[in-house]
Amino acid sequence: MPIIDLKTLLMIPINQLLNLLFVAFAFVLPLSRAGIVFFSLLIILVWFLSHEKYKRLKELAQSHAFQALMLFWLYTFVSLVWVESHNWKDAIEYVFTYWYFLVIVAIATTIEQEKILSTISAFVVGMLVSELLSYGIFFELISLNHGSPDNPTPFMNHLDYGLYLAFTSLLILSRLLYEESLKYRFFYLLFFISVTINLFIVAGRIGYLAFGVGFVMLWMHRFGYLWRAFGIAMGALVVIVSLAFNLSNTFHERVNVSLDNLQKLYYHQDYCTSWGNRMGALIIAKEIVAQEPLLGSGVIDHTDRLRAIIAHQYPQMECLSWFEHYHNQYAEVVTSLGLVGLVIFLSIFYALVRMRFENREFESIKVVFVSVFLVGFIAEPFIIKQFSLALFVLFFALLHGVYRHERSQKLTKF
Prior knowledge:
Layout: H1 6-11, H2 14-28, H3 33-48, H4 53-60, H5 64-78, H6 88-96, H7 101-110, H8 113-138, H9 158-178, H10 182-200, H11 205-223, H12 227-247, H13 249-268, H14 274-291, H15 301-313, H16 329-354, H17 360-376, H18 386-409
């Protein structure tokens, strides 16, 4: 197989090169932190060499969801003004995390129509590779530096991997629901089952919840927001969860641990469990909102405030003092950026929901994307974590790429 040398690579037209990079970026997303950084930087660099970027950027700027996202990033920069001077270095690094948003600009403005499905397929293939490795770890066929048979996550922690698996499972289900060929439907059904099983043998509880909510929302979107559709979706979900509870030791154990956490919290005010930690962080967040409602404490300062409030008001929550964030995206935003920041942040997803696609399958992908992330945010600030942020960036951009093509060409079939 011939290897493309640098000279040949440089002869490829910029837009074509970018589209190849988008496919590569999607493939490495679930597999490599270094790959995410490398292809993100390369995409941004090559995009700046594109001749049509400003024209298409004007088109993207008309999207209310993109406007809200950029406003959120800008407001986060502005919030540095009320950050304590000794935290500036860490605060700038925190804000700089959002440089991945530039990848959204590149993909949304440049991706070609025929490369949209190719990019999604590349992501799914990357997840398939990750899934095979996960099963290899689970059955003790292989051993990697990350993951164990009890929690087979090849490259990321269980929370991030649970989010990826929930999203991928529903992405495949969406394809299954719209596929007309029986042969392909059977293939997608098998893939959906394998990814869903993988989800329930990984110890990421928020992935379970995101899958459950996303499953119901996707089903109702496909078959109508009617009680009958809701009942069928809930019935199917009960069957899936029941099978998982009886067949997956990991899922069974995580459910029991969750119930134990809640009992300790309710009867003994024990905040030193996983769910207790998160409830304690929400209590601290409420205190900060009461004192600094509009603008919040500022990034990094908000975790200093958490430790100060624990020391003076909640000594029983001393076990939360190690927190570097609030383990909840909504609490993370409202404590650092106030209610103003939270409204801007939520407006991103409100604008996404209001986007309308002529292609029904991409409408379903939008529903899955919004549902999985809004639920996932309950347990973790996924927008500041690399793997989950990259997932957000890719599909936020792809949805805008589809939207651009539909607006310009009135396309209804991809």
